[in-house]
Amino acid sequence: MSSIASNIASTLNLIRDAEQRSGRAAGSVGLLAVSKTKPVEMLREAYEAGQRDFGENYLQDALPKMEQLSELEICWHFIGPLQSNKTRAVAEKFDWFHALDRLKIARRLSEQRPTDKAPLNVCLQINISDEQSKSGVAPDEAAALVAELIKLPGLQLRGLMAIPAAGLDQAGQLEAFARMRQLFEQLQALAPQMDTLSMGMSGDLVSAVAEGSTLVRIGTAIFGARDYARPQD
């Protein structure tokens, strides 16, 4: 077994253990492998180990990999911030976008989504820790944006995404994720089709699962630390 396959197996075991300890159904939490800046060979190894969902942050890095791996049945997630002049590539090439935080971007993605593809799955990014340096919608502004998003034919609003402040202890993690879960449940009254709570990374996976995450985004624990420079989009 390769080291990546072993890492995926260990991560899945951790997820399943967290599900069990939180009283969650087995298999209720999915794994998104965050492959940003990682070479194609690593993604192939992960695919051979059974991984199908991959998350990318940088278009300049992602698009060549998508072309090289086009024969594989990969579900591609764009999880980084998106400038308005970069929306077409996401609308045309990706299956999911996790960092939606502006109506302008949403409208462009909807207009640019090819009509022969299913609507683009999107998650609304929430700035749950109220960090000035972080993207995302303030929790009290989310409902108004959700009401607009559900009108756009090229998009399918699937849920919410958040990255709580770094350095929180477990109690702080649980508190932030609990607020996300509560907001998610409130917004389902407006958008009952929402089924995805994208939260939890390598350092806070257990807390995220305890508070209702349905999709954890794991990079370092699978692929190791970032080992080359960030591409310039």
Amount of beta strand: 15-25%
State mean pLDDT (0 to 100 scale): 94
Largest sheet: 8 strands, parallel
Low-confidence stretches: none
The CATH topology is what?
TIM Barrel
Strands, total number: 8
The first-level CATH class is given as Alpha Beta
Description:
With 233 residues, the protein is of the alpha/beta class. The chain has one domain (3-223): Alpha-Beta Barrel (TIM Barrel). The chain is built from 9 helices and 8 strands. Helix 7 links the parallel strand 6 and strand 7 (196-198). Helix 4 (87-93) packs across helix 5 (103-112).
Helix-strand layout with pairing:
Blueprint: H1 3-21, E1 30-34, H2 40-48, E2 53-56, H3 59-68, E3 75-78, H4 87-93, E4 96-100, H5 103-112, E5 120-126, H6 142-149, E6 155-162, H7 170-187, E7 196-198, H8 205-210, E8 215-218, H9 220-223
Parallel strand pairs: 1-2, 1-8, 2-3, 3-4, 4-5, 5-6, 6-7
Helix pairs in contact: 4-5
Summarize the structure.
The chain is an alpha/beta fold. The protein has helices at residues 3-21, 40-48, 59-68, 87-93, 103-112, 142-149, 170-187, 205-210, 220-223; strands at residues 30-34, 53-56, 75-78, 96-100, 120-126, 155-162, 196-198, 215-218. Pyridoxal 5'-phosphate (PLP)-binding protein, which is involved in PLP homeostasis.
What distinguishing features does this structure have?
233 residues; alpha/beta; TIM Barrel; 8-stranded parallel sheet; 39% helix; 17% strand; globular; Ala_racemase_N; PyrdxlP_homeostasis; PLP-binding_barrel; Pyridoxal phosphate homeostasis protein
